[in-house]
Design a protein that fits this description.
218 residues; alpha+beta; 2 domains; four-stranded mixed sheet; 4 strands; 7% strand; globular; binds zinc ion
């Protein structure tokens, strides 16, 4: 057990630094949900996910596994007690070293915000297979926020306020990491993402108009 923990402590920051510094050049893929399902034993990508809002956030790779999962503060695929997670002192206290920067500056602040924002909702801990629907395109209804997010249609509309697909294209062209679905012709996943984006933009622009019409009717 001690060896397992020591090995892991060394490996997690190295793994994450690759994302932070954008060292992995070219078209880096973010794991497809199906791949995540196969990796479930490898303890790589684990998240907190609000099933009410369909938003999820990176929980901190193995760091979350050691300090939340192993002490049984959380359990994969199960609803989370936000109070219990906030009380997990070790999870919130990584070392004050450069190798823990990714946790102190990126992962933990975003997790804290996420838990505070969704604390009255149903939050699940686990990998994507634990909360995404098995439906092929179900992931397009979700939004990842926080550390190194998979860029999805809702992110472009709700967080970045994009209104055209050209804005999405030029944004993605500037990223070191291209989302896996972007280049994929298989199953028209790129087109489905684009359609989803379009619907989101339309529903956003439709809403203020109807409010305006109602207001004028009075
Ligand atoms: Zn929520």
């Amino acid at each position: 057990m001690a060896n397992h923990i020591l090995n892991g402590l060394g490996a997690a920051p190295i793994l994450a630094q690759g994302f932070i510094n954008g060292k992995r050049k070219g078209r880096q893929r973010t794991a497809h949900p199906k791949e995540n399902a196969m990796q479930s034993l490898a303890t790589v990508n684990i998240y907190f996910a609000c099933t009410d809002c369909r938003v999820y956030v990176d929980a901190g790779y193995r760091w979350a596994s050691w300090w939340l999962e192993e002490p049984r503060i959380v359990k994969r695929g199960n609803p989370v007690s936000v109070e219990a997670v906030f009380s997990a002192r070790e999870y919130w206290s990584p070392s004050n070293t450069d190798s823990a920067d990714w946790l102190r500056k990126e992962v933990l602040p975003s997790v804290r915000r996420f838990l505070a924002e969704h604390r009255r909702h149903r939050i699940v801990f686990g990998n994507t297979a634990d909360f995404l629907s098995s439906d092929e395109d179900g992931f397009l209804d979700w939004m990842q926020v926080g550390f190194s997010p998979l860029l999805l249609p809702r992110y472009f509309v709700e967080l970045l306020g994009f209104q055209t697909w050209d804005q999405v294209s030029s944004f993605i062209a500037r990223q070191d990491n291209t989302p896996w679905w972007w280049m994929l012709e298989w199953d028209n996943i790129h087109d489905k993402a684009r359609n989803k984006f379009q619907k989101l933009v339309e529903s956003r622009t439709a809403r203020p108009k109807s409010v305006h019409c109602k207001a004028r009717a009075h």
